[in-house]
Structure of Nucleolar protein 16:
Amino acid sequence: SHIRHAWDPTKSVAQNLAEMGLADDPNKAVPVPRKKLLGMEVESDGRKQGKKIVRKPYVVNEMEYEASLPEKKSNTLSRDLIDYVRYMIQNHGENYKASTGYEKNYYQDTPKQIKRKINVYKNFYPEEYKDFIASLKQEKMDVQ
């Protein structure tokens, strides 16, 4: 969005990017160092970069600021997966083999896949998992 707001439609792409302090060609922006290939010396492109005038430095500054902000953790599971895992735990508990032949297992998950999904649920929502297990134990006690 910063680039879009600073863009001048009357200028070329290279001119717009140069004014913002951005490179239009990464091969020219980062020079290739001298290398030795099979005993022969190969030099990088001999063009010298003149000093560029950056007229819109705020674009790069704003982009750097945005990049330095910490990312929001958006680790969530789908409601369907949560319901699936809770259903499997509720009906089969730790018996993953018994849960494979069940009608809710419409993806035909193997016992290891079901176990992995349950472990992912445990890791994403540890408090909710503990409360769920506690409610299951309470239900069992009420039934007996």
The first helix runs from residue 2 to 6. The chain has eight helices and two strands. The two ends are 62 Å apart (CA to CA).
